Amino acid sequence: MRLREGRAAEATAGVIDSQSAKTTGVGGPERGYDGAKRLKGRKRHLLVDAAGLVLLACVHAADVQDRAGARRLVETARSGELPRLQLVWADQGYTGAFASWLRGTRGWRLEVVRHPEGQLWRYGLEERPRGVFRVLPR
Q1: Where do the Transposase IS4-like domain residues begin and end (predicted)?
Q2: Distance between CA atoms of 36 and 20, rounded to whole angstroms?
Q3: How many CB atoms lie within 10 A of CB 90?
């Protein structure tokens, strides 16, 4: 796929993130409560390249913090896997000692992407932009 797009066969940069998903009461030993999302279930951690192709994937209980889940994800990679990867982008949930651990373990540089100014309206810090979709009362 990468070769068809005119890219090198191996990715040099990737994006790491997680997503929580609700599970049913049946199945799977590893479930937990994600307090931020207010749901009981599992969390999937992914490392994807710039085109969105999955490089690594890991599923665990939803109560695992992002940094710990990302560490589990990276530990699933075999030695020598993703040899050209140099840079990993992540959100603010991956700050702290994870960056130095990632650099020391795999030699990958972690770049935490910050919110651009004026984009925090969702959290009540700025005025909500006009012209967006919203539910109309009856």
Answers
A1: 12-107
A2: 10
A3: 23
